[in-house]
Amino acid sequence: MRKFYEQLLENNKKWVETSLAKDPNYFADLAKGQQPPLLWIGCSDSRVPANEIVGAKPGEVFVHRNIANMVVHSDMNMLSVLDYAVNVLKIKHIIVCGHYGCGGVKAAMGHQSVGIIDNWLRHIKDEYRLHDKYLNSIENEEDRFNAFVEINAKEQVYNLAKTSIVQNAWKNGQDLMVHGWVYGLNSGFVTDLNVTISSNEELDSVYQLDL
């Protein structure tokens, strides 16, 4: 245990040395501030590293991660990140990225209690209820699982568009697009789910806020 911890510190030193060897001003420039064009909302899964997936450098991606890449309207952590990204950093793109093999989505499809996370998984179970006819029509369990991962990512795109933060940005003429992706753990490739929203007019009227 101690050896692993010490190795982390050693890895940091090597990373700093390598970065400075490439660019002596690397960290000095980073310290001046950030203006990333992208907010990434992804899963906490350790196998889904946002920057590496899209080949981005430090300072290019603002990141929020939680179990199953959820956008919950009462989650003040997520809303604070979203507000800062949209209103302070003026990001232009938000990507919700799910991933095949997501443990959170898998757990939401079952009935076993897994602790306090049961309360979080309830939000995912609600989505299954909305799409149960389609999902239950898929006989192969793995195919049904993959389809639900995709549906979950799409639903979070719509949940973002429903927020007053995003709708107010659109009202003020801010360029902002929200996209849905799914990442393949066994391939490294992302799949664009072709669900991109850039206006609240693309939502059902009940969600369109008069701001």
Would you write up a description of this structure?
- This protein has 211 residues and is of the alpha/beta class.
- A 5-stranded mixed sheet has the order 2-1-3-4-5.
- It starts with a helix and ends in a 14-residue tail after the last strand.
- The protein has 2 domains: 1-32, no CATH class; 34-207, Beta-carbonic Anhydrase, Chain A.
- The chain is globular.
- A hairpin with a 6-residue loop joins β4 and β5.
- It contains 9 helices and 5 strands; from the N terminus they run ααβαβαβαααααββ.
- The chain is 46% helix and 16% strand.
Sum up the structure in keywords:
16% strand; 5-stranded mixed beta sheet; 2 domains; 211 residues; globular; alpha/beta; Beta-carbonic Anhydrase, Chain A
- The first-to-last residue Cα distance is 54 Å
> What is the C-level CATH assignment of the largest domain?
Alpha Beta
Per the CATH scheme, the topology name of the largest domain is: Beta-carbonic Anhydrase, Chain A
What is the quaternary state of this protein? single chain
CATH superfamily of the largest domain: Carbonic anhydrase
Mean pLDDT: 97
Largest sheet: 5 strands, mixed
What number of structural domains do the residues give? 2
